[in-house]
Each structure stands twice: as C-alpha cells, then as structure tokens.
Design goal:
single chain; Rossmann fold; 6-phosphogluconate dehydrogenase C-terminal fold; 3 domains; 4-stranded antiparallel beta sheet; globular; binds 1,4-dihydronicotinamide adenine dinucleotide; binds 3-(4-hydroxy-phenyl)pyruvic acid; EC 1.3.1.12
C-alpha cells in the first residue's frame, strides 16, 4: 500500500472549508490521522459524528507539536493571532498553510513565524457554513491559489502544490498583493453587493411585498449572502484597501449606467457586451481544465425528470461530467450538463431530443 503524504494533520477551524479539506485528505488516503481544533464545541461534536476527523481537541497544546501538516481554516479575522499562538507548539519540520480568502496580511504576518508557512486560497465554496455542509467534492477541480512571498521556502511551496493536486484541485501561484486585488473584484465586491441588495430590500417600507415578488434574478445575485456572516465580514474587512478601489470603480460604472438610461441604444451595446462576458464564464475554467462541452435541457415540472435524463444518457454509456440545475419554475426548469467531448455532447443531444426534450 502507498504511504500517505502526511502522518498527522491538524485542522484549525473545522467549518465548511476545514471540513472539506479534512474529508479530501481522508477520502484520498493522504493522511493517516486527521485532528481538529475549534473553539465551538458543537463544531467538534459534529466533526466527530460525521466522521470528518479522527480526533478533536478543545485547545491547542502539546498535540500540535506532533503534526506534520497544520491547516488554518478559521475566519480571516483570527488567522494571524491563531497562527502566532500555534507557532509556540509547532514542530520546526512541520508544514503549515491557511485557506483564508485574503492573502496579503496573513502571508506577511505568518511567514517565518509558523514553520514552512504557505498562504493559499481555494477558489471554491458555497453559501453554506459549518462542517455539516463540508464535502470533499467542494475542492475538486477548483482553482486553488498559492501565494508565496520571498520568505516562503521552495520545498514547502512544492509540498503544498503537491497536496493541492492530490486533493484534485488546480494550483495557481499568484503573489499575495495581486491575489487580493483580483479577488476584491471577482469575489469580495459581489459579496458586498449581495449584502447591499438585501439591505435595500429589508429597509423598504414594502419589504414583505418585495420578498414575495423576488424572482430568480434576485436569488442568483444575492446567493452568497446566505453564507456565514462572520466569514464574509472578516473577508471584506481584511481586504478593505483593494475592495475600496473596486467599490470606487463600481460607483463610476453605476453612474455611467444611470446616465445610459437616457440613451437606450448605447445601453443596449453595454448590455450586449455584458451578456458576452457572462456567457463566456465557463462551468470550469477552460484555461486550466480540459474544455467542457455544454448542453441545456428544458424539463417539465414533473417528478422523475432528472432520473429520466440521466438514465437515458447512462444507458447509452455517456458520462455527464458536470450537472447544474439552472432554474426551477412552476412551468418547468432547465438543466445544464457538461460533457468531455463534442461527440458525447452531440450523442446526448440526439438521445434527449429523441425522447422529447427541448435541447440547446
Ligand atoms: N466559505 C467559503 O466559500 C470559503 C471560505 N474560505 C475561507 O476559509 C476560512 C473558513 O471559512 P468557512 O469554512 O467558510 O467558515 P465556517 O464558518 O464554515 O467555519 C469556520 C470555523 O472556524 C471556527 N473558528 C472561529 N474562530 C476560531 C479560532 N480562533 N480558531 C480556530 N477556529 C475558529 C468556527 O467555530 C467555525 O467552525 C475563512 O478564512 C474563509 O475566508 C475560503 C474559500 C471559500
Ligand atoms: O459560493 C460561491 O460562489 C463563492 O464564491 C464562495 C466563496 C467564498 C469565499 C471565497 O473566498 C471563495 C469562494
């Protein structure tokens, strides 16, 4: 049998991300023993009950010195103080990493403090919080940023890269400052907007009527506001400099759009450009992953539709690489599927059209 990459691993903060890393390590036999620390006793109870980890601890202590790998997965606001506290127990030979959404301040504070520290950020998650929502699949096929600085040991960087690949994700090395500027726009600004849009609704005198009227658009745009408020608050505050610049740019764009309301032709051009940008978003990142060929199927609102579609394709030996429910309405919904090859997608199209589905 192959030797696991690590003997003992410790996860500090056993929530959505920490739990998903722990499950990935266990399911892929990358660690002999996974330990967890969390200040919330319910998180520890759940982690044990759901068999996410082997052992739990209510405080850091001597056990930390036995770890070969430590993963910090607490909210960004406590990562630095938690890392400094753990440094007094850590074995100098051990490897340490974090999965926080902001890299600049964390990498600066913990490099050279925790032994062999490497800052990372998996670009995957969900609007759920806590260990009960954790699953190994969350990290699979994700782009996982690794943010070294001049103090990061080469050997540690190589080990973390290997771990990310072994967890089924795609490592992408980006320096901390650039990372923070980019995620301010692609992740943190959308979070702030989701909070803002909900606030606008909550403060309206017709709040209840608005809630009743909210259709898919509002839901899609604000989904991330359902995540852990503490996690997202910490994330945006820790990246406030870069985020303020992004807010400033958005303000200018909003002003431009407001003015374009008086110039419908020009607004149409901007809307068309936005559609091109949005439609070019891949299910998976095409530059890093194999191309995925997509198909959208309209399904009526009747029981057994997902089974009918997947069984028809399964019986023809067609593998569905990705499956996403796009919309659910009373009159029916739509499912988007991804296939590895163009041939499989064409075959799938014919089969589904053959049994009466509208496909595009
Ligand atoms: N939620 C997401 O989609 C993503 C989150 N991240 C990052 O992962 C980290 C964890 O976030 P989630 O798992 O989503 O949050 P979560 O709320 O599901 O889990 C965080 C856990 O950390 C624990 N915790 C709080 N203070 C702690 C401390 N001082 N020491 C150790 N544990 C502590 C909490 O009790 C909780 O169990 C954050 O740094 C976040 O920025 C990164 C990528 C995606
Ligand atoms: O659910 C989503 O779409 C997210 O974007 C989740 C997410 C939250 C925080 C991160 O740092 C990265 C990803």
């Amino acid at each position: 049998m192959m030797k696991p990459l690590f003997r003992k691993v410790g996860i500090f903060g056993i929530g959505l991300l920490g739990g998903s890393v722990a499950l990935g390590l266990r399911e892929r036999f990358l660690a002999e023993e996974v330990h967890a620390y969390d200040p919330d006793p319910r998180a520890l109870e759940d982690a044990l009950a759901l068999q996410v980890v082997d052992r739990v601890h209510t405080a850091p202590g001597g056990w930390v010195g036995e770890l070969e790998l430590g993963v910090l997965a607490a909210p960004v606001g406590v990562l630095v103080e938690e890392g400094r506290r753990l440094a007094q127990y850590a074995n100098p030979q051990s490897l340490w990493m974090d999965v926080g959404s902001v890299k600049g301040p964390v990498v600066k504070a913990l490099s050279g403090v925790l032994p062999n520290f490497v800052g990372t950020h998996p670009m995957a998650g969900s609007e759920k919080a806590g260990v009960e929502a954790a699953h190994a699949g969350l990290l699979q096929n994700a782009v996982w940023v690794i943010s070294p600085n001049h103090q990061t040991p080469d050997e540690a960087l190589a080990q973390v890269r290997g771990l990310v690949e072994n967890l089924g994700a795609y490592p992408l090395v980006i320096p901390p400052e650039l990372h923070d500027r980019l995620v301010a726009r692609i992740s943190h600004l959308p979070y702030l907007l989701a909070i803002g849009l909900n606030r606008l609704v909550a403060q309206d005198p017709h709040h209840e009527l608005l809630m009743f009227l909210a259709a898919g658009g509002f839901r899609d745009l604000t989904r991330v506001a359902s995540g852990s408020p503490r996690m997202s608050r910490d994330m945006v505050v820790a990246n406030k400099e870069a985020l303020k610049e992004a807010v400033e740019d958005l303000r200018a764009v909003l002003l431009e759009l407001e003015n374009l309301l008086e110039r419908p032709e020009a607004l149409l051009e901007v809307a068309q450009e936005a559609k091109r940008t949005r439609d070019a978003l891949p299910i998976v990142r095409r530059s890093l992953l194999p191309v995925m060929h997509e198909l959208v199927v309209q399904v009526p609102d009747k029981p057994g539709q997902i089974a009918r579609v997947s069984t028809a394709l399964g019986e023809a030996g067609i593998n569905i690489k990705n499956f996403e429910v796009l919309a659910i309405r009373d009159e029916g919904g739509a499912i988007r599927m991804g296939f590895a090859t163009l041939e499989e997608r064409e075959q799938a199209r014919q089969i589904l059209q053959g049994i009466g589905y509208r496909v595009r």
